[in-house]
Amino acid sequence: QRGAFVTARARAAASEAAGQVSARTVKFFADGVIEAGTAALLEPYDDAPHSCGLPVWEPAELAAAATAFDVDGFQLHIHAIGDAGVRAALGVVANFEPLWTQLDAVQTELTLPRLGTARGARQYPMASLLASGAVLSMGSDWPVSSHRPLSGLPVAVTRQTPAGLPGAGWIPRERLPPESALAAYSSGVAYQAGEERLWGSVSVGKRADLVWLEADPLVVEPAGWPQLRVLGTWLGGRATWRRQQLRSRYR
To answer: Three-state SS for 71?
Structure first.
């Protein structure tokens, strides 16, 4: 079956979309999800003391599979949400979906009742991982969550709901500085893709994949980021979209 992955990678590299679409990453699931009771935990669930969840792989098996695909030159993406699942996948880039780091109904009604207070307070430790020297990247898990970075970024910084709750943020010690959140969504993603020398930051010689916002997010309160208008986008230096009223001015 590994040969099928190699073939798919070669087909993508030879396609007309080469350079914009690639097939160089293999995704593994170390466990399931907390809300369904399938995330692998070190201790039983608070509401199901007979269960610690369902690990998909034994750690040694996961290591062997990861090694095999690494030999074939693939990047690895490992879903791991429970503490036992995470412990089976150490030494990796920490990819977060920042929209999940707010105290919304998913947390209060589905997740926290399963984990309890102590474990619930250890969720999404972005600032702690950053301080430890780990590389952070961020995504959306679309279509499960919004695909808009401007919706996820402020949550990473404030850990608040759109209504601004709680006032100090949920688990405020894990809030990220704005610069770190922006880096995770850009240079961190490029590093995860193994293409940090090609894109991910505005640097001479890198591919010009750019978004033009109406204001600098570093001088706007994070709560206002979702309302920032996108004025234009570029992919590889080529303009792909401009707001209508600006097209005649910036041709």
So the answer is: helix
Contact 99, 157 (CB under 8 A): no
Distance CA 86, CA 155 (A): 22
Which DSSP letter does residue 25 get? Answer: E
Q: What's the pTM value of the predicted model, to 2 decimals?
A: 0.77
DSSP state, 92?
S
**Distance (Å, whole) CA 249 – CA 251:** 6
Burial of 78 (0-12, 13-18, 19+ CB in 10 A): buried
pLDDT for 82-117, tens place per residue?
A: 999 988 887 788 999 999 999 999 999 999 999 999
Query: pLDDT, tens digit, for every residue of 150-161?
Result: 999 999 999 999
By the 8 A CB rule, do 209 and 234 touch?
yes
- Quick check: bond before 166 cis, omega within 30? yes
Q: Check whether the bond before 143 is cis (ω within 30° of 0).
A: yes
| Angle, helices 59-71/2-14, rounded to nearest 10 degrees | 40
Q: Which amino acid is at 155?
A: V
Query: What is the DSSP secondary structure assignment for residue 63, as one 8-state letter?
Result: H
Strands 94-96 and 238-242: unpaired
Q: How far is CA 19 from the centre of its chain?
A: 22
| 3-state secondary structure at position 30 | coil
